[in-house]
Amino acid sequence: AQKITQTQPGMFVQEKEAVTLDCTYDTSDQSYGLFWYKQPSSGEMIFLIYQGSYDEQNATEGRYSLNFQKARKSANLVISASQLGDSAMYFCAMREITNSGYALNFGKGTSLLVTP
Amino acid sequence: GAGVSQTPSNKVTEKGKYVELRCDPISGHTALYWYRQSLGQGPEFLIYFQGTGAADDSGLPNDRFFAVRPEGSVSTLKIQRTERGDSAVYLCASSPAVSGANVLTFGAGSRLTVL
């Protein structure tokens, strides 16, 4: 069963505007972590932001913030003041702490295009 | 090293051949992960190591796939009797330890093309 759902295959945003990339997840664990990664056309996966399930505050990292709504099981990424260099694939991922493996399960991604 | 290094960056092989993909993690990182990413998809978990042992190999698709990490550092992903469906980018990642907040640092990947 798909544990991470990213419903937006592609998004457009104008430079300097904010954009929200959606992510919902499915878990029965109480303890888990949520991650966002960026993958530009070069192919490298770049870590952006992390949110723990027990964190009360929404995570922020520079222009990135994570809108964490635990009851809705959503962890949307907000990019403020978009830049042309933000054009890339964005992946949401979850680690379930109590499950074996500690591996990240990734969604299918959202392609973001920032236009001038 | 400074980052996760993967070799080769590109590998073209014929159906039925054997291939090895190498991953050199960040020095001191005890956890190492292999993922496979097909075109237009997110990374798909294959296997992870804690030290020398495979702690979870539940993502390996079949017994043609095998991975080792004999000294707890470099890892090799081995694919026997390659099939066209094995064509993908194989990503390796490492992290300092296994815990909830530990961030995986990825290599640039090895692109495998099976003709």
Short précis:
The complex is a heterodimer of chains A (116) and B (115). Chain A has 116 residues and is mainly β. Chain A contains no helices and 12 strands.
Structure description:
The complex is a heterodimer of chains A (116) and B (115). By secondary structure, chain A is mostly beta strands. Helices cover 0% and strands 50% of the residues of chain A. In chain A, the strands form three sheets. In chain A, strands 2, 5, 6, 10, 11 and 12 form a six-stranded mixed beta sheet that branches. In chain A, strand 8 and strand 9 (74-79) form a beta hairpin. Chain A is globular and about 40 Å long. The termini of chain A are far apart. In chain B, the strands form two sheets. In chain B, strands 2, 4, 5, 6, 9, 10 and 11 form a seven-stranded mixed beta sheet that branches. Chain B has a four-stranded antiparallel beta sheet with strand order 1-3-8-7, with no helix packed on it. In chain B, 35% of the residues are buried. Chain B is built from no helices and eleven strands. With 115 residues, chain B is mostly beta strands. Chain B is globular, with a radius of gyration of 13 Å.
Please specify the SSE layout and strand pairing.
The complex is a heterodimer of chains A (116) and B (115).
Chain A: E1 4-5, E2 10-14, E3 19-21, E4 24-25, E5 32-39, E6 46-52, E7 60-61, E8 64-69, E9 74-79, E10 88-96, E11 105-106, E12 110-115
Parallel strand pairs in A: 2-12
Antiparallel strand pairs in A: 1-4, 3-9, 5-6, 5-10, 7-8, 8-9, 10-11, 10-12
Chain B: E1 5-7, E2 10-13, E3 19-24, E4 31-37, E5 44-50, E6 53-56, E7 65-68, E8 75-79, E9 88-95, E10 105-106, E11 110-114
Parallel strand pairs in B: 2-11
Antiparallel strand pairs in B: 1-3, 3-8, 4-5, 4-9, 5-6, 7-8, 9-10, 9-11
